Amino acid sequence: MVKFAILTDIHGNYDALEAVIKDIDSRSDIEHIYNLGDNIGVGHKTNEVLDLVTNRKDMTNIAGNHDEAIMAVAHNETYPESLKNKFYEHHQWIVEHLDSKFYTFLDQLDREITKEIDGLNFYFTHYRILEEDMDKHISEDPFQPIVEPSLEHVHGLFNGIDADFVTFGHNHVLHHFDDIETIYFNPGSVGLNNGAYAVYGIVEVKDGAINVERIKVPYDNQAFLDGFEEKNVPGKELIFESFI
Fold first, then answer.
1. Does residue 227 contact residue 233 with C-beta atoms inside 8 Å?
2. Which parts of the chain fold into alpha helices (H)?
3. What pTM did the predictor assign?
4. Each residue of 184-212: pLDDT tens digit?
5. Which is nearest to 128 in space by CA: 140, 138, 143?
6. Domain locations in the chain?
7. Taking a C-beta distance cutoff of 8 angstroms, is the pair 82, 76 a contact?
8. In this structure, what DSSP letter does residue 191 have?
9. Which Pfam families does the record cross-reference, listed alphabetically (predicted)?
10. How many CA atoms within 13 Å lie on the side-chain side of 154?
11. Assigned fold of 2-242
């Protein structure tokens, strides 16, 4: 039997991440953690999140669109037009507070990982990028448009991916669909929820079967909420209206 955790879309919310990690560490049977990207951006505890993530030896990390857009700003590269009106000023602020020791880590994150676990094929990504778009810069919007949660939509979104289990993030709501051939799972966002809780997933692989559990972890989110005003985070009005 193999058991591992899936978390995604931390979005700079260290308090939520800390609660999730404490819950994972309290369980003796979770062997590994897969972190599916958007580590930073939106939230304001950038370095705290990255310090925790980079110090976990049992965590595999993937790039999200916010991670890549922020690094485009950091390297003075072309920024995605699709994000400019909403996030450019905010991402500039993130870069101003981002410790440069994390640049290499963020620059080297993979966009997808495939892995065989107990004879089954697993596909990990932040969100679908077509094969022909895999090498495109973030400014070219390589990620596919978000689809609403349904078996039909995710089946179409990941058409061509040959895997027993496909897991992803990006859209911050739960996806858990099974078309017999493939299980599609997005646990929802660790850091951005309409309430004082964080979510992640636990996957158990045993005797050729895959079982999935979504875990909801309560935490005190008041310091996270207050921090936007205290630090005068750019774009906080949009963030509260759309994400929190």
1. yes
2. 14-25, 46-54, 65-74, 81-97, 103-107, 151-157, 222-230, 236-242
3. 0.97
4. 999 999 999 989 999 999 999 999 999 99
5. 143
6. 2-242
7. no
8. S
9. Metallophos_2
10. 22
11. Purple Acid Phosphatase; chain A, domain 2 (3.60.21)
